[in-house]
Design goal:
Elements (H helix, E strand, L loop, with lengths): L5 H20 L7 H19 L3 H34 L9 H21 L7
Helix pairs in contact: 1-2, 1-3, 1-4, 2-3, 3-4
Amino acid sequence: MKNKGIGFYLTLVACVLALADIIVYTQVMYKMPSVFVVLALAVVIECVAIFVNNRILNNLLPVILAVLLGFAAAHSFYVMVNQIGYVVAALDTIDTIISFIIFVSIAVIGMILCWVSGFMKQEAE
């Protein structure tokens, strides 16, 4: 961890957000198991990158995590679209989807961090 650049640490923060996303997703009304798997895969890949000093993996890590977080956010809409429609039509209150909104917000913030870290150095000079 001593030869890591600022980009790696931003990707590490995105991984922590993915871990927090797993916890928040347990509170969402309708869940898909594949979202849990994708988020867990993002955390595992980051843990492997911490202990394995592979330059190719370190350079691809922000892209991989951004894709996984984006997939998790987009794929979770599939089962929540009806509930969102109920809230928009005023048939239900916002309380039913607030945890989903928090989940997607955290995933998007993590994805943006990955995009930013992709343009930064992953390893220090």
